[in-house]
Write a structure and sequence with these properties.
The complex is a heterodimer of chains A (211) and B (543).
Chain A: H1 13-48, H2 50-57, H3 62-87, H4 91-121, H5 137-168, H6 175-178, H7 181-205
Helix pairs in contact in A: 1-2, 1-5, 1-7, 2-5, 3-4, 3-7, 4-5, 5-7
Chain B: H1 21-25, H2 30-58, H3 69-105, H4 113-135, H5 149-153, H6 158-185, H7 198-229, H8 243-277, H9 284-297, H10 313-341, H11 350-373, H12 375-381, H13 385-415, H14 421-448, H15 462-492
Helix pairs in contact in B: 2-3, 2-4, 2-15, 3-6, 3-7, 3-8, 3-13, 4-6, 6-7, 7-8, 7-9, 8-10, 8-11, 8-13, 9-10, 10-11, 11-13, 11-14, 13-14, 14-15
The chains are: A mainly alpha (211), B mainly alpha (543).
């Protein structure tokens, strides 16, 4: 069974698994640096325009933001349990948990879409008819759109990876136990979640700290 | 295979293991992917070269007589973009690194062969955007994409140019991930960290820089796209943005990018110099630490590109100091290469000539870097040809020379054929002369005040420009020569045998060219650069 998963150049499955996880960690380091370029800019402008950022931060939709945070954290939980289940040879359970993960992630995107629609309706897209007049508010919303947009692209990539697992293993649940893909996908999904955990406070909570 | 009564045949070498186009385009063999990269970057090298030829011809006279100012701007921009991202960044890592890293550590392939192929396709995707940029009429921002010009004023194809660089960045990142994972996970038993060849260490350090710096550039380019096409204020000062932020983010990548270009060159030089002096590399462990130190310190010097941009004078002092710090490990390397020659049995074959060229040009490039790290001198020569000369000494003088050194040194391994030595030496010497003739006058005219990126200039600078253009012509000849005699030798060269240079290193234990699995018998692992017995130590029990 195990040599089905062994690919050149490896001659040892355990080592191959470690290599896949290690490679994914390296890629995640790179992803963190990708977002850090945004965090640096956000930090800089918040220092320059504290009042504008506070005012603009109050305009994001806390309900959508909070519900989406809960959804994404739950999906991280389900994919983590899926990995444990796969390793315990509970392939069917692992498969259904992946389906659940996919549905949660997908609903995150749908909710985000509704939130975007309302944002646009409330003139929160920077431009000539922008709703707020405080200096820095437009820059806050530039970062809001870019950060959540790039994050949504990552969610989409993660969903494609999860969907791949679901499709490949749909007739062979045991595949999930032997392949390193589940681990690697889960690692990526957790990163997408972790990035959101940073985005949530800086976009939805900070502006509300002063009532 | 079909007839078991015959004794087992030697496996086919990688060049003959499948001859269809499909067997190349869908290969996962690191050696074939290296060849794919080599062909692609050569193509782009010539695109970049044609662009700069137009620039150099225009600069023959002080007046504008060949091209319009607009075309001129587009020419030096495409030269910069193509040469930096489509030639220099992938040059040594994606070709020789790809080919040699698994061989040098005794592995069958990189850790993730399919991702390695994906790296090449990402390169091709980025390259397609760049070609599209050319078809759409080019881009005129300079390779640095400085805001607000790139986001608010330029009427050229900034979007496609930025997307090309964005996409090719992921090729770098995936190559970096692959190299690091391979070095950690696939070293042959007995190949300990401090037995790794310096070239492998150089690839490792380069990969670190690739995965940490490249994503920041990717995001910076996305911000440009956001501001230019979606009108989101990020850097626009009239809407509260800070253009300096762009420069910080850009140079946070683009200074370390210089180390992506030069660290591999250092790795190449270490292999060649030890081999052609038949000496153990002097101070092996210090060479390793110096590589890592350069990679690490290189992340904290980006502000020296912004001494006149209006950043705080205190930041200037710190960045100046840190830039000087990089010179320490760099000097350690130069001294150690030189000391390796001591009591060596030196031969002046073409790879060694290139390595010596690298050594001299890197030293000049490095020392003039110290001029530029000094704030008052930098203020005097900012945006002059002095800067242009300095970074060409590093990026062309050091990196491209080392690239050609590597090409000649490992050509017998890659193709199984020997190149014609006399022609190769002639090309190496021509390249050295042409390079210095092109760029040394630029130091002088830059110091005298000739600004970069101008196509009309005061007549007193003409003599330097004529020298420089003449040098560029010589350099062009030198770059074309290997194209002919190497291709010739691929067809008609003498068989190289396994190890024509009496070189150490596992790649020289594999057949030339190596088969798909690299080694027929498991390689024997020795201490690194074991060219002669270490004094007073019984051979073989060191490290």
């Amino acid at each position: 069974m195990s040599d089905v998963f062994l690919r050149p150049p490896f001659d040892n499955l355990a080592r191959q698994h470690r290599a896949v996880a290690f490679g994914m960690w390296l890629f995640l380091v790179s992803e963190v640096l990708l977002f850090s370029g945004l965090f640096a800019g956000y930090g800089l402008y918040r220092g320059i325009y504290p009042a504008g950022f506070l005012a603009a931060g109050r305009e994001t939709d806390i309900v959508y933001g909070t519900v989406n945070t809960a959804i994404l954290m739950t999906s991280s939980f389900t994919i983590a349990v899926a990995g444990r289940a796969a390793r315990a040879d509970l392939g069917r359970m692992a498969w259904w948990l992946l389906v659940l993960t996919f549905l949660l992630g997908f609903s995150f995107l749908i909710l985000k879409g509704f939130e975007y629609r309302e944002d646009i309706a409330r003139h929160l897209l920077p431009g000539s008819d922008f709703a707020l007049s405080q200096s820095g508010a437009q820059i806050f919303f530039s970062y809001y759109w870019i950060m959540t947009g790039v994050h949504a692209v990552h969610v989409t990539c993660g969903l494609i990876a999860v969907l791949r697992l679901i499709i490949v293993s749909r007739k062979n649940f045991a595949w999930l136990s032997g392949s390193a893909s589940e681990d690697a996908t889960a690692l990526y999904w957790h990163l997408v979640d972790v990035i959101w955990i940073v985005l949530y406070p800086i976009l939805y909570l900070v502006g509300r700290a002063h009532g | 295979m079909s007839d078991t009564t015959f004794q087992p045949q030697a496996p086919l070498d990688y060049l003959h293991d499948g001859s269809t186009l499909r067997s190349w385009l869908f290969t996962t063999d690191h050696k074939r992917i290296a060849i794919l990269f080599a062909i692609s970057i050569t193509l782009f090298f010539f695109i970049g070269a044609v662009a700069i030829s137009v620039v150099r011809l225009e600069l023959l006279t002080p007046a504008a007589d060949l091209v319009s100012d607009d075309t001129y701007n587009k020419m030096f921009t495409i030269h910069g973009i193509v040469m930096v991202w489509f030639f220099l960044i992938p040059s040594i890592p994606a070709t020789f690194g790809n080919f040699l890293l698994p061989l040098m550590i005794g592995a069958k392939d990189l850790a993730f062969p399919r991702i390695n192929l994906l790296s090449w396709y990402l390169y091709v995707g980025g390259a397609a955007f760049t070609v599209l940029t050319l078809i759409l009429g080019g881009v005129d921002t300079g390779w640095t994409f400085y805001t607000p010009y790139s986001t608010m004023f330029s009427n050229s194809s900034v979007l496609t140019a930025a997307m090309g660089v964005f996409v090719v960045g992921f090729s770098s990142v995936l190559t970096g991930v692959n190299f690091i994972a391979t070095t950690h996970m696939l070293r042959a038993p007995g190949m300990t960290w401090f037995r790794l060849p310096l070239f492998v260490w150089a690839m490792y350090a380069t990969s670190m820089v690739m995965i940490l710096a490249t994503p920041v550039l990717a995001m910076t380019l996305l911000l440009i796209v956001a501001e230019r096409w979606f009108d989101l204020p990020i850097f626009d000062a009239s809407r509260g943005g800070d253009p300096l932020l762009f420069q910080h983010l850009f140079w946070f990548y683009s200074h370390p990018a210089v180390y992506i270009m030069v660290l591999p060159a250092m790795g190449v030089a270490s292999e060649i110099i030890a081999c052609f002096a038949q000496r153990r590399l002097f101070g092996y462990s210090f060479m390793v630490y110096a590589l890592v130190a350069i990679a690490v310190i290189g992340f904290f010097v980006w502000g020296h590109h912004m001494f006149v941009s209006g950043q705080s004078p205190y930041a200037n002092i710190v960045f100046s100091f840190l830039s000087f710090m990089v010179a320490v490990p760099s000097a350690i390397k130069v001294f150690n290469w030189t000391a390796t020659l001591y009591r060596g049995s030196i031969s002046f074959d073409a790879p060694m000539l290139y390595a010596f060229g690298f050594l001299g040009l890197f030293t000049i490039g490095g020392l003039t870097g110290l001029f530029l790290a000094t704030v008052p001198i930098d203020i005097h020569v900012t945006d002059t040809y002095f800067v242009v000369a300095h970074f060409h000494y590093i990026m062309v003088g050091a990196s491209v020379t080392a690239f050609f050194g590597a090409l000649h040194f490992w050509w017998p391994k890659i193709t199984g054929k020997l190149y014609p030595e006399l022609w190769a030496r002639a090309a190496a010497i021509t390249m050295f002369i042409g390079f210095n003739l092109t760029f040394f006058p630029q130091f002088v005219m830059g110091y005298l005040g000739m600004p970069r990126r101008y196509h009309v200039y005061p007549p007193e600078f003409q003599v330097y420009h004529v020298l420089s253009t003449a040098g560029a012509a010589v350099l062009g000849v030198a770059y074309f020569m290997p194209l002919f005699y190497l291709v010739w030798s691929f067809r008609h060269g003498r068989e190289a045998g396994i190890n024509p240079w009496r070189a150490k290193g596992l790649e020289w234990q594999a057949p030339s060219p190596p088969p798909h699995e690299n080694f027929i018998t498991p390689p024997v692992i020795e201490p690194p650069y074991d060219y002669h017995p270490k004094d007073l130590v019984v051979s073989g029990d060191t490290l």
